[in-house]
Amino acid sequence: MTQSSEQNPQLALPAGWYTVDLTVSVVGDPAKTAVAATRVDYVHVCPKDLYAVAGNEHETYPWDSPANGTSNILALVDEALDGTTIHIGEGDFVIKNEMVLSKRLTVTGEGWEKSIIRMSPNANYRVLRMNNKSSVVERVTLANGRCAIYNGRDGDGTGVGVLISGNGGELRDCRVTGAVSKEYYQNGAGVSVESNDAFVRRCLIDHNDNRYTGSSATIQYGGGLYVTAGLVENCLVVSNYTRQGGGVHITGGTVRNCTFAFNKAVRCQQDNKTGGAAGGV
Q1: Distance from CA of residue 194 to its chain's centroid?
Q2: Is the full-model pTM beyond 0.70?
Q3: pLDDT tens digits, residue range 154-164?
Q4: Pairing label, strands 231-233, 198-201
Q5: C-alpha–C-alpha distance, residues 194 and 167, integer Å
Q6: Per-residue pLDDT tens digits for 67-113
Q7: 229 contact partners, CB below 8 Å, separation of at least 6
Q8: Cis peptide preceding 30, ω within 30 of 0
Q9: CA distance 85 to 69
Q10: Contact criterion met (CB below 8 Å) for 125 and 153
C-alpha cells in the first residue's frame, strides 16, 4: 500500500473483483454504535491489455498476456473497462452471442486474414454492435452473422454483420463477410452505419446477403452497406446481394473513395414486381 496523504490512501491491487467492508465509528465516544456496510464485488481492477488466444480455455482473470489469454472474446469484452485494449491473436474465434462495444475499448487483431471472429452456426445474432464513439475495432474478420428469424433477437435486425448505432464507433481495416438476413425489415446485411459518430475505413465487405423472398410490398436495402449517417471511405464492397442497393443503400452520411463490384439487386421472387434496382449503389 502507498499513501499520498493521510486522507487518501492508494492501493496497488492485482486484477480482479474486490469486496469492500466499511466501518464508521465516532472516535472517543464508545456509546455511539459503529455502522458497518459491505459491498460485494464493488471494486473492479482490469489490466490495460487483455488477450484472446485461440485454443486457450483460461476462464478466469487476469488474461493479461498471450500466455494466459482466453479464447472467450465475449468474456474479455464483459470484463474490460474504458481504455482497455483487447488483442485478438491469430486463429478462429467462435462466438455464440452478439459482441457489444458500449465502452471505450479498442479491439485489434493480427490482420483480417489471420484473426477471425465468426458467429456459431447454431446461433442467430449479428457479430458486432458498436455504440461508443471512442470504440475501435481493427484488423479482424467478422464473419457469418445471421438474423434468420422473424423480429430478430434485438428487435431491429439491421446490420447483420456489424451495426454502428447511435453513439458511434470506428471500424477500420476489417473484413465483414458471410452475413445472412432473411426478414423484410433487415437492411444492411453486411454493415449498417447509423450514427454521425460512425466511421468505416479501409474495409472489405463481401458476400453478405439478404435472402428474403416474401411479399413484394417490402424491400430490403443495402446488401453490403446500409448508410443513414456517418462516414464510409476507402472500402471495397464486393459480391453482396439484396432487393435494392446491392452494394450500398444510402439515405444520409457520406460514402467516398469506395469501390463497388459484382453486387446484385434482385426482384421479388413471388410476383416480380419490386426490387431489382441499383445493383451497385
Answers
A1: 14
A2: yes
A3: 446 688 899 99
A4: parallel
A5: 9
A6: 999 999 999 999 999 999 999 999 999 999 999 999 999 999 999 99
A7: 193, 194, 195, 196, 198, 252, 253
A8: no
A9: 13
A10: yes
